[in-house]
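User: I'm new to structure prediction. If I give you an amino acid sequence, what do you actually give back? Let's try with this one:
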Amino acid sequence: ISRSGDLLYVAGIDTAGSFRVLSADTSAATWELAEVYSAGGTVDSSFTVGTFRRDASGRAIAESLTGVDMQMRADDDAEWMALNAFNGGARLQVLDMEVHDGVFYGAGSRIVEPPHLFIENTDAASFTFETIDLATGLGAYHGEMWAIDVDASGVVIGGVDQDADVGFVYTTDLDGGNIQGTSMNDFFDGDATWVHGVCRNGNTLAVAGSFSIREDGFVLLSTDNGATWTVSGPTFAWDFAFTETKIWAGTNQGLLVSTDQGLTWDDAVVADASIRDQLRGRVTGLETVGKTLWV
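Assistant: Good question. You get back a string of structure tokens that encode the predicted 3D arrangement of the chain. For your 295 residues, that looks like this:
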């Protein structure tokens, strides 16, 4: 789920048809839905969409949930085209994307490759991702980075070291420099872990992870751009979002909210007052636009 321009975008798969990305005009009482991307007739265009992102000019990318294929269009009226965004014909998998200040960022790749940060090369003649290895030298490993978030303060990325079955979080500058990594072994030594969700608001960072061999999870919070972390919040969260004075967490039990930087959490009711319809159960995606929270 993401917001771009005046529309809300939702990506995935329509199991009864070909829809892969839909837009929603949320300005009216009854939302108007429109097709954005539908599966084509070839393997590289028929995938389930894992992440869809659009910039303010209308450039948009849809990436495969389970493979390396991507589709891109140059603007809202252009045709979708297969995209190989890596130099030398490399076939790397993008697992999550964000757009900040007109620049596309991505996280990846596969379990047989090092963990990557992808940053659009804005000087290239055609769309190209610059690939930055997050773990090098003696600290190198094979792993996947499943989540990324970007704002003016920098980048935060989360995933797993597949060699050791240990979750990792990284922070970098907007250009990919000043890489700082944090292992979940620092907090849960001996436990198999992975990180699947990250969110940032300035120097405040939130991380959602789980334990691989038991049905439980963890939340970490940092208020100094990842220099120090506190284990806090619900034991599991699918996603986080920030509004001006609150942190929100989507969990299996519903929506939670914190007004004290994650020290304590309370249940939040999500309801449409006009029709008295209440959202219940698992909350898997959150997105904020200004002071508005989408659930």
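You can read the tokens as a compact description of the fold. Here is one thing that stands out. The first strand starts at residue 2 and ends at 4.
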